[in-house]
Amino acid sequence: MKDHIVVLSGAGVSAESGLSTFRDSGGLWENYSVFDVATPEAFRRDPALVLRFYNDRRCQLAEVEPNAAHRALAELEKDFRVTIVTQNVDDLHERAGSSKVVHLHGELTQARSSRLDDLIYPIGYKPIELGDTCELGSQLRPHVVWFGEQVPMLEAAAGVVASADHLLVVGTSLQVYPAAGLVDFADPDVPITVIDPGEPARVNRATVIRKKASEGVSEWVARLRGQGR
Question: What is the domain extent for residue 129?
């Protein structure tokens, strides 16, 4: 059986495609505080503002393309089993061709009921407006995990990491929990590589490549595919 490559990806991967990130903009997304647009309380207080914010994110997503890092990870499937566990809510991994993607924080191209979390609808890049409701009559909301909410895919992601033969961490500082704790589920003998141009949190036994995602991932994937032949 082919080795299982597990990738933990974060905002740094999507940033190179032109998507704005929260942490790289002074704690703001497009001049909005996280407390105004990314909490359940914000949605109850001003749903129109929250919907408009995510509608803008969805519009922006429709205009950008996967970058070299996304494409290299998709190419890796030619030689290995690959599962991507991403903190990103965009669909750039899928658009690049990756077939197994676990979204920890939900998906921007989906909407869900504000009453029942399991009622999820594909919407692509269309806006969600006030008055758009689920089949139960409740207002639709973005299918994203807001600050203060549970991360429903965390257990599944931990199981994926536990099955890894190689673990690649890219585009994430490994400083935001609970997602940062996923590396602890890797088997002690599994090699870990961290690709980040900054100062990621220290990970025991990890090899750190201080490059941007597009450059570092492309090089790492080429080397790994060469070894796998």
Answer: 20-63+111-144
| Active-site annotation, residues | 105
Contact yes or no for 223/209 (Cβ under 8 A):
no
Main-chain phi, psi angles of 139, to 5 degrees: -60, 135
Phi first, then psi: give them for residue 182, nearest 5 degrees: -65, -30
- My answer on whether 227 and 195 are in the same domain is yes
Place of tokens 């994110």: 57
Q: Tell me, yes or no, whether 225 and 159 share the same domain.
A: yes
Query: How many distinct structural domains can be found in the chain?
Result: 2
Both 99 and 70 in one domain: the answer is: yes
Give every residue of the chain whose pLDDT is below 50, as ranges: 27, 229
Q: Global pTM?
A: 0.92
How many residues are there in the chain? Answer: 229
Q: What is the pLDDT of residues 89-146, one digit of tens each?
A: 999 999 999 999 999 999 999 999 999 999 999 999 999 999 999 999 999 999 999 9
Same domain, 72 and 128: no
**Is the C-alpha dihedral spanning 24, 13, 107, 18 positive or negative?**
positive
- Cβ neighbours for 72, distance < 8 A, ≥ 6 positions apart: 217, 218, 221, 222
Four-residue CA torsion sign, 92, 202, 81, 83: negative
Give the containing element (helix H, strand E) for 52.
helix 47-63
